[in-house]
Specification:
The protein has about 325 residues and is of the alpha+beta class. The protein has helices at about 20-45, 50-60, 105-115, 125-135, 145-160, 250-255, 260-270, 275-290, and strands at about 5-15, 80-90, 95-100, 120-125, 195, 200-205, 210-215, 235-240, 245-250, 295-300, 305-310, 310-320, 325-330. It has a single domain (about 5-145, about 190-330), classed as Glutamine Phosphoribosylpyrophosphate, subunit 1, domain 1, CATH 3.60.20.30. The structure holds aspartic acid (ASP).
């Protein structure tokens, strides 16, 4: 029996101590810890890595602090289009959805694509229709909205009209599940500020790994844009022989470098350890193409790496029944 491991991320970017108040910081730690504890319980009860990452990402989607599910960023048209993927390292089965607009939990839709369809990736209205047909939890698009993300979108539009993700300073917890006071963002937009995608990787007692990733994409993105998150090998990958990997960052670069799979390939073909492969991809390959962000990964031996080339990454892990560890800054 293996000691199970779960790790999660809630996005990487310019997350600095000065940009986060002590209260905000405490809120992030509390949410990350609660989510890790729930996913850890799945594993310590003998559950599968696949179930653990599904549960972790579902909870991250439901938490408005992160850019996935509730709290997803806005497109250029003021709408929400969500992407998610999941992969089972034991079988290499995978499922993904892109540009869904009415599914409460895109990760559940991705898993349903994997288990109930003949395909790996469904997109747009076809993916929405599939989710409805499968009886998944369907929401009005207003469900995803939060005041913080709306304000952020308005500022991005005003200041540059560029495709940007949310910046840490603009997002406070007054809009979180724990309070209702609207935020009042004042910091200028930093084009490379913060990527709020969520993800999870796990190893279960049976020696199987799995990964899942979910996102609202990047703020003010062009309608129809699909990032790395739902692309197997780019934002999400899992194979027992190598590792389970979940990404967050400048999606287009993760797509061009096939970042998640590159970690696995370095392990398989070059004999790299998980740590070496992660360092090479995150600290050498991605920056060579101006890729910013991070990856989390676990292998079948229980090695774990949470690697990022930005100032911070919301992250945490738990081994066996140990108290979860959470962190934000470098
Ligand atoms: N990688 C995501 C995307 O490009 C963004 C993120 O990580 O926040 O859609």
């Amino acid at each position: 029996m293996n000691t199970p491991v779960i790790a999660i991320h809630g996005g990487a970017g310019t997350i600095t101590r000065s940009a986060l108040s002590a209260a905000d910081e405490a809120n992030y730690h509390r949410e990350l810890k609660a989510i890790l504890t729930s996913a850890q319980a799945v594993l310590t009860a003998g559950g599968s890595a696949l179930d653990a990452v599904t549960e972790a990402v579902r909870l991250l989607e439901d938490c408005p602090l992160f850019n996935a599910g509730k709290g997803a960023v806005y497109t250029r048209a003021g709408t929400h289009e969500l992407d998610a993927a999941i992969m089972d390292g034991a079988t290499l089965k995978a499922g993904a959805v892109a540009n869904v607009t009415c599914v409460r939990n895109p990760v559940i839709a991705a898993r349903t694509v994997m288990e109930k369809s003949a395909h790996v990736l469904l997109a747009g209205c076809g993916a929405d229709a599939f989710a409805r047909q499968q009886g998944l939890d369907i929401v009005d698009p207003t469900y995803y909205q939060t005041e913080a993300r709306h304000q952020q979108w308005l500022r991005v539009r005003e200041q540059s009209g560029m495709m940007l993700d949310h910046d840490a300073a603009s997002f406070t917890f007054r809009e979180s599940a724990h309070g209702t006071t609207p935020v009042d963002p004042i910091e200028p937009i930093d084009p490379d500020n913060k990527f709020g995608t969520v993800g999870a990787v796990a190893l279960d007692m049976h020696g199987n790994v799995a990964a899942a990733t979910s996102t609202g994409g990047i703020t003010n993105k062009q309608v129809g844009r699909v990032g790395d998150t739902p692309l197997i090998g780019a934002g999400c990958y899992a194979a027992n022989a190598t590792a389970a990997v979940s990404a967050t960052g400048t999606g287009e670069v993760f797509m061009r470098t096939v970042a998640a799979y590159d970690v696995a390939a370095r392990m398989a073909y070059a004999g790299a350890t998980l740590q070496e492969a992660m360092e090479q991809v995150v600290m050498e390959v991605l920056p060579a193409y101006e890729g910013r962000g991070g990856l989390i990964a676990v292998d079948a031996d229980g090695n774990l790496a949470l690697t990022f080339n930005t100032e911070g990454m919301y992250r945490g892990y738990a081994r066996g029944g140990d108290t979860p560890v959470t962190a934000i800054y470098k």
